[in-house]
TrEMBL record, chain A:
Residue spans crossing the bilayer: 55-74
GO cellular component: mitochondrial inner membrane; proton-transporting ATP synthase complex
Topology versus the membrane: Single-pass membrane protein
Species this chain originates from: Sylvia atricapilla
Example GO BP: proton motive force-driven mitochondrial ATP synthesis
Protein known as: ATP synthase F(0) complex subunit f, mitochondrial
One Pfam family in the UniProt entry: WRW
PANTHER family, per database record: ATP SYNTHASE F CHAIN, MITOCHONDRIAL-RELATED, ATP SYNTHASE SUBUNIT F, MITOCHONDRIAL
Role summary: Subunit f, of the mitochondrial membrane ATP synthase complex (F(1)F(0) ATP synthase or Complex V) that produces ATP from ADP in the presence of a proton gradient across the membrane which is generated by electron transport complexes of the respiratory chain. ATP synthase complex consist of a soluble F(1) head domain - the catalytic core - and a membrane F(1) domain - the membrane proton channel. These two domains are linked by a central stalk rotating inside the F(1) region and a stationary peripheral stalk.
Automatic annotation (TrEMBL), chain B:
SUBUNIT field: Component of the ATP synthase complex composed at least of ATP5F1A/subunit alpha, ATP5F1B/subunit beta, ATP5MC1/subunit c (homooctomer), MT-ATP6/subunit a, MT-ATP8/subunit 8, ATP5ME/subunit e, ATP5MF/subunit f, ATP5MG/subunit g, ATP5MK/subunit k, ATP5MJ/subunit j, ATP5F1C/subunit gamma, ATP5F1D/subunit delta, ATP5F1E/subunit epsilon, ATP5PF/subunit F6, ATP5PB/subunit b, ATP5PD/subunit d, ATP5PO/subunit OSCP.
Protein name according to UniProt: ATP synthase subunit a
Subcellular localization, as worded in the UniProt entry: Mitochondrion inner membrane
Molecular function, one GO term: proton-transporting ATP synthase activity, rotational mechanism
Chain ranges passing through the membrane: 12-32, 69-93, 195-223
């Protein structure tokens, strides 16, 4: 019988659909929380694509392409 | 039509949140993060070798007391280099086109070099205001001139960076607009303009790197005089 885990600590894949609203409400939306989430997400990407033995140009290029897309979304109203 | 060319320099904001912060902190994601391994990944190795090259180049003319400035000068150099180069990608925002940011970088650092000199060796740093071998009659005028040029240094540092980058971005936008406008009527001239655009882009990449270097070099020069 698996031990009961607090809703706060469950990963997104294990959250039931009915609990999704309360799970989202419990997340940390302060600036340092958001920064931490960005850092963790980027660390996952970095360790998968850039921090490998024979990494090529693709890892960094994907980051730059994502930055271009993000900037396009922000400046769409100016164009 | 005239005003839209300068729209690219307005500080972008999404629902009131200034996005210039993200443009300034994004280069940090591209830099090598500390790893406990002896041999790091290829990207980190290349970047760290570049940083070593830059630091050695900057610190060679400085004496031992000046080596305390190594961290700030190297990080400033990397910061400006990355921001300038990232600004050349399409649709991105270059924070260094804002005069406010460049003056905010130039003024405190220049003031720090000046105060270091005045505090540690006041007579030697003041003597820089009068070049050797000037005729006696010219001395008052020359001291005024040298003081003015000393006080102009932070303004020159900031404005140089701003003007170079702004002019480059504006030229790219103008030439590309011309290329597209000419394409329907005179394709041959449009091709010529495309060639000019290509050369201009190469120039801009060079200018982006050179301007960052010049900024930090001049600062280290002011430091050498004063430390």
């Amino acid at each position: 019988l698996p031990a009961a885990v607090l809703l706060k600590d469950t990963k997104l894949m294990d959250v039931k659909l009915g609990q999704l609203g309360s799970w989202l409400a419990m997340r940390d939306f302060t600036p340092s929380g958001i920064l931490g989430a960005v850092r963790r997400g980027y660390d996952r990407y970095y360790n998968k694509y850039i921090n490998v033995r024979k990494g090529g140009i693709g890892g960094v290029s994907m980051v730059l392409a994502g930055y271009i897309v993000l900037s396009y979304m922000w400046s769409y109203s100016h164009i | 039509m005239n005003l839209t060319f300068f729209d690219q320099f307005s500080s972008p904001s999404l629902m009131g949140i200034p996005l210039i912060l993200i443009s300034m902190t994004f280069p940090a994601l591209l830099l090598p993060s500390p790893d406990n391994r002896w041999i790091t990944n290829r990207t980190s190795t290349i970047q760290l070798s570049m940083i070593n090259l830059i630091t050695k180049q900057l610190m060679t003319p400085l004496n031992k007391k000046g080596h305390k400035w190594a961290l700030i000068l190297t990080s400033l150099m990397i910061f400006l280099l990355l921001i300038n180069l990232l600004g050349l990608l399409p649709y991105t925002f270059t924070p260094t086109t804002q005069l406010s940011m460049n003056l905010a970088l130039a003024f405190p650092l220049w003031l720090a070099t000046l105060l270091t000199g005045l505090r540690n060796q006041p007579s030697a740093s003041l003597s820089h205001l009068l070049p050797e071998g000037t005729p006696t009659l010219l001395i008052p005028a020359l001291i005024m001139i040298e003081t003015t040029s000393l006080l102009m240094r932070p303004l020159a540092l900031g404005v140089r960076l701003t003007a170079n980058l702004t002019a480059g971005h504006l030229l790219i936008q103008l030439v590309s607009t011309a290329t597209i406008a000419l394409f329907s009527t005179m394709p041959a001239v449009s091709l010529l303009t495309l060639l000019i655009l290509l050369l201009l882009t190469i120039l801009e990449v060079a200018v982006a790197m050179i301007q960052a270097y010049v900024f930090v070099l001049l600062l280290s020069l002011y430091l050498q005089e004063n430390i």
